Amino acid sequence: MIQKIAYIVCLAVFLISCGQEKKSSEIKLAGFVFGTTYHITYVDADNQANYQKSIDSLFNLVNKSLSTYLPTSDISKINNGDTTVVVDKMFVDVFAKAKKIYKETAGYFDPTIGKLINAYGFGSGKERKNLSSKEIEKLMIGVGFDKVKLENNKVYRESDQIEFNVNAFAKGYGVDVIGWFLEDKKINNYLIEIGGEIRARGKKKGKLWKVAIEKPNIDGTRSLQKIITLDDESMATSGNYRKFKINENGKKIVHTVNPKTGLASQSNLLSVSVRLKGDCADVDAYATAFLAMGLEKTTAFLLKHPELKVVLLYNDKNNELKEFEN
């Protein structure tokens, strides 16, 4: 599976009911995929078809292409040095998105941090306890999306030290895959959520879909920060307040690795929610990049990207929870 089951991310976003629909036209599907839960609701007034089997097949295809937890996946084979792999359209799509957002964020989103993710214990590889600065420096040699290229559906790496990990936006891409499938079936009113990453299109009984952003409660309690209305938008939320470890020295190690420094340290930015009239994979990647950037760099970035609607939850200098929304 794309995410390690032992570290399932609690949903940072959960669905809010926005009106009842006739049972005859509303289909609800739910299950477990990519190391987390999923919920799909769509309105199909014409034939009320249940596409569970087709959706399961699509999830399997995503895993076969992009899962670092599946040894036979394309990405695992590439990471293990197989130069004969001819990647599929899913890999090509994800590679193109990664390249675009890597450039836009000046490298704060970088799927070549696979070895670092493993070393910190958040990936499929072996964890290293209490990484030293020299060990991090050595691992950073294999980081840099500008060191890889895709030609004729084959991936070329400058070094075997480079290891891909697209988990940062694989859930979002999985959401998009299901959305495209439903749209191909002429279903234009739906909401798809995988592990808190969401794609909403159309309406439910004449009303836009509504979702909620949670407060980043460190004590594990659940409460709402605010409700968001999605108008043919995708939204993703990333946070470091639940998914973390404490090393032997008592230092908090978070799951977001800064591709610039190789560090996985907690900042005052606790939660990032990004929405866009576009694909869920994109907002998933931006949310990850913003966590690595931190508060100041993110707010500066947003001045140049008004198409991104963002909610940032952070602690101020008095350790009080504050909210920024552009």
From TrEMBL:
Comment on bound cofactor: Magnesium. Can also use manganese.
Compartments in which it is found: Cell inner membrane
Keywords: Cell inner membrane, Cell membrane, FAD, Flavoprotein, Lipoprotein, Magnesium, Membrane, Metal-binding, Transferase
Gene3D superfamilies listed in its UniProt record: ApbE-like domains
Lineage per the UniProt record: Bacteria, Pseudomonadati, Bacteroidota, Flavobacteriia, Flavobacteriales
Membrane topology, as annotated: Lipid-anchor
Cited Pfam families: ApbE
Name the record gives this protein: FAD:protein FMN transferase
Protein purpose: Flavin transferase that catalyzes the transfer of the FMN moiety of FAD and its covalent binding to the hydroxyl group of a threonine residue in a target flavoprotein.
Molecular functions per Gene Ontology: metal ion binding; transferase activity
